[in-house]
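Chapter review. Work through the record for Adenylosuccinate lyase before attempting the end-of-chapter questions.
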Amino acid sequence: MAHVHTLAARCPRAAPIIHLGATSCYVGDNTDLIVLRHGLDLLLPRLAAVISRLAKFADEYKSLPILGFTHLQPAQLTTVGKRASLWLSDLLMDERALSRARDDLRFRGVKGTTGTQASFMQLFNGDSEKVRALDKRVAQLAGFDKRYIVTGQTYSRKVDLEVIAALSGLGATVHKMCSDIRILASRKELEEPFETSQIGSSAMPYKRNPMRSERCCALARHLITLHANAANTHAVQWLERTLDDSANRRLTLAEAFLTADATLLTLLNICQGLVVYPKVVARHIAQELPFMATENIIMAMVQAGGDRQVCHEKIRVLSHEAGAQVKQHGKDNDLIERVKKDSYFTPIISQLDAILDASTFIGRAPEQVIEFLEEEVNPLVAKYKDVLSELEKPVALNI
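Structure tokens for Adenylosuccinate lyase:
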């Protein structure tokens, strides 16, 4: 009302009809919908920049073998690029969710105090078509092709929930990705960028803590929690509306967009400077691959005329002996050396190097990455080609 009185004082001829038939939600809710759409228009290209940069990383390392993990235990090999493509796949889903939320937005328009447009029917002397035309025209002037035909006093807070759900989903993706990076950093296989003068730890000068990934996880966790807030706000909008949404939404909507923006900026910086250490990766593979290769060794022996059951028992015994060296004595995996010393395996000794070639354990991972980039990632990146050159410029962070 302060705004209405102030405007009336400045425009006295308009004073009798200012805000006639409207509510504060006509101003506030319609503005919020414009802001939501604009916010998504800012975030989507930023997300595309992350996807574009990460795609280059995936392509570069599509064929580099690395230990895969299930249950956080070493499993069959994958590749560095294939693992990055898993992150990319989630980010593509987030782009689709955000785009869908953006495209689904409509305008509240002119609906009156309980959404029935009764006051506007009075203004137009009961002419329903004029009320409908006004509603449609106001939406068009605000840049919306569609409007919500039915509302209460406000547009449904389910709309807020859909937008926050998409942003919260992005938070889950970022948290998973950056948690993976933190795990890989602890194994010294992969690191986020590290500035020449950056301090890793105030107490331990040698440390290179994954501070960017930790920051992303911290922000992403907050973003995830906002989903419950938006859901609860929608759930308690009794009948045509209650006002306990107002103060909450001023925090939740703003924080969701600001948090997503800060998270994507940090994530882009990470993707621009990811460092892989192939020799460390190879060393870790060498520690586990002998166990993974046991089935291939058995198959080679059978092809050379050996008995599978006999070979299986010998491999079982040697594997347990090698496992004891690793677990009980902290030594390297010496299974292959034990195989070489056992005369039973003489027929295949010359084949062991080929059997232990890590590139033969990664399946179609490189081809999967190529197919994924060509069919799914590149077409999406092409949608944003006009803005990516600017958004992909190196991001400087205050670390």
